[in-house]
Amino acid sequence: MNSKSILGAALIGVGIAGAANAAEILVTGDITTSTTWTANNTYNLQTQIYVVSGATLTIEAGTVIASDTNIGGSLAVTRGAQLIANGTAQNPIIFTSKADVATWTGGDPKTGNWRVANNEWGNVTFCGTGYVSENINGAMVPNTSAPSPTNYGLMEGLVEAFPGDTRVRYGGGNDDDDSGTLRYVSLRFGGKVVGLGNELNGLSLGGVGRGTDIDHVEIMNNVDDGIEIWGGTVNLKYVSIWNIGDDSFDIDQGWRGKAQFGLLVQGYSSVAGQGSGVGDNCFEMDGAEQSDYQPVTTGSIYNFTVIGQPIDGDHGTAWRDNARMQIHNSIFMDIGEQVVKFDNVDGDGGQGYGFNGTLSWPATWTTDYNAVPVRPNDPVGLPGFYASQTSGKLAEIKDCVFFRNQFGSAYTEATARGAYPGNGTNNNVDAGNLVANMPIRSLTRGPVTPVLALNMVPVIGLDPRPAGAALVSVGQAPNDGFFTPAQYRGGFAPDCVQSWLDNWTASFAFGFTPANNAMVTEYCFGDGSGAACPCANSSAVGDNVGCLSSLGLGGKLRATGCPSISADTVALQGSQMPNSSALYFQGTTQQAGGSGAVFGDGKRCAAGMVIRLGTKNNSAGASRYPVGADPLVSVRGNITAPGTRTYQCWYRNAANFCTASTFNLTNGLEIAWTL
Length: 675
Known about the structure:
Elements: E1 5-6, E2 23-27, E3 35-37, E4 41-45, E5 48-51, E6 56-59, E7 64-67, E8 74-77, E9 82-86, E10 93-97, H1 98-101, E11 124-127, E12 153-154, E13 169-170, E14 180-190, E15 193-195, E16 198-199, E17 203-206, E18 213-222, E19 227-230, E20 235-244, E21 249-252, E22 258-265, E23 283-286, E24 298-307, E25 317-320, E26 324-328, E27 331-333, E28 340-344, H2 361-364, E29 396-398, E30 401-403, H3 412-416, E31 429-430, E32 440-445, E33 449-451, E34 454-456, E35 459-466, H4 506-509, E36 520-523, E37 556-560, E38 571-575, E39 581-587, E40 589-590, E41 597-599, E42 602-604, E43 606-607, E44 611-617, E45 623-625, H5 633-636, E46 643-652, E47 663-665, E48 668-673
Parallel strand pairs: 1-2, 2-4, 3-6, 4-7, 5-8, 6-9, 7-10, 8-11, 9-14, 10-14, 11-17, 14-18, 17-19, 18-20, 19-21, 20-22, 21-23, 22-24, 23-25, 24-26, 24-27, 25-28, 26-29, 27-30, 30-31
Antiparallel strand pairs: 12-13, 15-16, 32-35, 33-34, 36-48, 37-38, 38-45, 39-44, 39-46, 40-43, 41-42, 46-47, 46-48
């Protein structure tokens, strides 16, 4: 293979991500001119890399950034720079470690194994120019208590290379700051430990403005927080945060943004203490670094599914330093301690609620969003400064469902603040503790696992689509150009609508969140659990794939989308195949009770009335049907009434690999079609 280098990197010859001639590019210096990283290469961050002011780093869909675990490289976008990372569900952008890539099958990023690991590389950081509240006063940083374009902070986890190094600063006076785009990006096994109490979050957002687009972002395993936001007005949509070593979603220094459609799953990512490998709070919300400063955190969150740790987890929401947050249409379940925790101060010198004439903790929950306390909501000359809330109270938890939060005082503070059933105006629901009343479709936990002094019960299987009391909410998010009106509770739409986690996330790759598992049944595995493969060419038991091919892998068939005749979005996706032609076909029944019949180097599973859907050429061992102008699966398959159909993929194999044939087949799928 040819290896390339940039910015003085040495040449090496390792390819990742399954591209036949992929080159690994060692990134060793700052991005000082506009640069594009392409999907036919992989990138290895060798140190703390900065995209400096005036430069734009563009990352193509499908690009893998995999760094050495003994180096821990990281990427930071400085004020005045941009990162344009536009992935897709089919071709996400993945930041991870080479240790993670080593678990992928055939270089396919939609495979791999979850591990107890973090701190294997750094993170992605954005430093924007929005207003922040930071009280590091003194000759070096003369910040003020009033909003000022000259106020700034020093980014956690970044270290000044020299006194006055502005690359590590965030904040300014532009709430419309555009630091770029982060879309369909998965961040895995990161969170470099820089020093004692100085650790990188999965995604750090300092002073980032509303002109920045962030949606479909996942953080899987991290040593510190999942996402932490300091000030600014950035909005976020479709965020998944799993197994974080500290707080899942952490807000500070006057964030005034919005977030919708999220999943927080508490767990652990290393054998360490709570806060450095074991999850702490689900939401941690600080108002301002000193509680009488402005801006003060004033945000709005809709449609989150929050799954805690039931034995030794921490709080669902922790409130400090005058934070003002609204949380609507969400699910809180299995929280280990209190659903609402009045922390008051964050331990770094802030004075908490009520300081210097600010609103007290109880008053924050009873004061209208647009009331004028001692300090006006909109500072003089800054209209619309607190625009994320448009109704209700400054602090409220409304139209949510609570389930199986069994800690003794789980609801004590929530009840006192009117955030728990008992206050009829909040439309909240307590679904109790019975499994039959669970507000999501399914949840599977592994065994209780001691992690030092704490007992963790990891989530290993999840269908987060709503059930029971979560299916219909009373209210919904406003149709304001950012929020999507969605009249259900939690982060996922009901019925057969495709989960937004499908295809691009680590949770999908690891099998934690299978695609549409209520509509699709996998069967006919060439893993030794059914009829024998033609010449003992079985895959490992439990792989749920077809018989081994000349690649030494069994072909894998998945399906995504909604099998509704009136709204068909089904896509059949084959992977782990040679780069040859692949024929997707449909049957009406399962062959031989689902075990399949010997057919070439594999087993034919789809039987009955067989219809050829289409032939595709595999690239990097994968293909899909339909693509572009192809007829929909239901149209090509002549499906006009509800019922089940079976599917499989036939593909060319190396001559005489097993029998005298030149073809093999994937596993089979049975899909239940509805109107």
